[in-house]
Design brief:
Blueprint lengths: L30 E5 L3 H13 L3 E5 L2 H10 L6 E5 L7 H11 L4 E6 L3 H6 L9 E3 L4 H13 L10
Parallel strand pairs: 1-2, 1-3, 3-4, 4-5
């Protein structure tokens, strides 16, 4: 077996200073209700969000999310939900949570492309969306964008 690894050419030395990345702007202390039916994706997203300073309420299903939403005494700043889940879609879940907590912002995720999800009528074009698989940086940036009401945050170049 032969393996070939192609790496991009770098014009600077490894010891040269890199531009400072502002991870502080991608962090927060808000409360996020994370709804994801896939165990591994849920665990990874939770770890990323907690590392970024957020308080995370975890629900493996829409039913659990509704129950946790009713029981939680504090504010829930963001609903981070998968679009396609058993029993109840992410959009239906968001509508039900909006009845209880109209101030809660929503960020949808899916393994389907945003264009495909919109074309099939699952999401409307202006809804906040994050494509799976996501990187820690893309999740943190998109969450911060939605919480801040910003259009797009440009990720720092590494």
């Amino acid at each position: 077996t032969t393996f070939k690894v192609y790496l991009p050419r770098v014009e600077s030395d490894a010891d040269s200073p890199r531009p400072a990345t502002s991870t502080r702007r991608l962090q927060g202390n808000e409360t996020i209700l994370l709804v994801e039916d896939q165990d591994r994706v849920r665990a990874i997203a939770r770890a990323i969000l907690e590392r970024s300073g957020y308080r995370v309420i975890v629900a493996p299903s829409p039913g659990d999310a509704l129950m946790l939403c009713e029981q939680h005494q504090g504010k829930i700043d963001l609903l981070l939900t998968d679009v396609v889940m058993p029993w109840l879609s992410g959009t239906e879940l968001a509508k039900r949570i909006a009845q209880m907590r109209p101030e809660t912002k929503v960020l949808y995720t899916s393994g389907y492309t945003d264009d495909s999800v919109v074309r099939h009528g699952v999401l409307e074009g202006e809804m906040a969306f994050l494509q799976k698989p996501f990187t820690p940086e893309s999740l943190s940036a998109r969450v911060r964008e939605v919480l801040d009401g910003a259009r797009r945050v440009t990720l720092p170049q590494s």
